[in-house]
Design a protein that fits this description.
The protein is α+β, with helices and mostly antiparallel strands. It has helices spanning about 5-15, 75-90, 150-155, 160-165, 170-175, and strands at about 20-25, 35-40, 45-50, 65-70, 100, 115-120, 130, 135-145. The chain is built from five helices and eight strands. The longest helix is centred in the N-terminal third of the chain and has 13 residues, at about 5-15.
Length: about 180
């Protein structure tokens, strides 16, 4: 089985369904950045996406990552934004837990979430977060949409654990949630 088939089969098994695919790279791009879009995972009414292709890059440290994002929303703009971030930062960001990324604008109209924090995946266990492709091991890491002030707090020595631990999954999936910090 080809490495790409192993990766896509893994995504299908995690979500229990089949994906639709979209290339989010600019039209004139040399490289593609494909996203797989799943509906109804991890809860009914949610959209989940995974990148396909980020792990082809050979970044310092030898780690190969693919990204995932989930939001309780019918709009797949969250998945598109994840793919754009992956494409834009593919040669410079290691996507390590705790890294923050300013999207530069609200990710979706009607939502104040405008940044991402990289975190371990929250919707499946550690066994689902590592994919052995035979030629390399791929780690799945989550992009969690956050508010600008949460990103600033993390940049000023806040910790990922203090921000996310103990938060109900439903809250983190809510595209119109208020800031976690008061």
């Amino acid at each position: 089985m080809r490495a790409a088939d192993i990766l896509l089969d893994h995504y299908d098994r995690l979500t229990g369904s089949s994906a639709t695919y979209r290339n989010v790279a600019p039209d004139d791009a040399v490289d593609d950045m494909i996203v797989a879009i799943y509906r109804g995972y991890p809860v009914e009414g949610a959209v989940t996406g995974f990148t396909i292709g980020l792990s082809h890059l050979h970044l310092p440290g030898g780690q190969h990552n693919e990204l995932t994002v989930s939001m309780r929303d019918v709009d797949d703009v969250w998945v598109h934004a994840m793919g754009v971030v992956a494409y834009r930062l593919r040669n410079e960001c290691l996507f390590q837990p705790g890294d923050t990324i300013d999207f530069g604008a609200p990710i979706r109209t009607g939502s104040a979430l405008r940044a991402f924090v990289v975190a371990p995946p929250m919707h499946f266990g550690p066994q689902g977060a590592v994919i052995d492709l035979g030629i390399r091991r791929v780690n799945l890491v989550a992009l969690v949409p956050i508010h600008a002030q949460e990103r600033q707090w993390l940049a000023a020595d806040g910790t990922l654990d203090a921000l996310l631990d103990g938060r109900p999954r439903e809250l983190l999936l809510n595209p119109t949630r208020g800031p976690l910090l008061r």
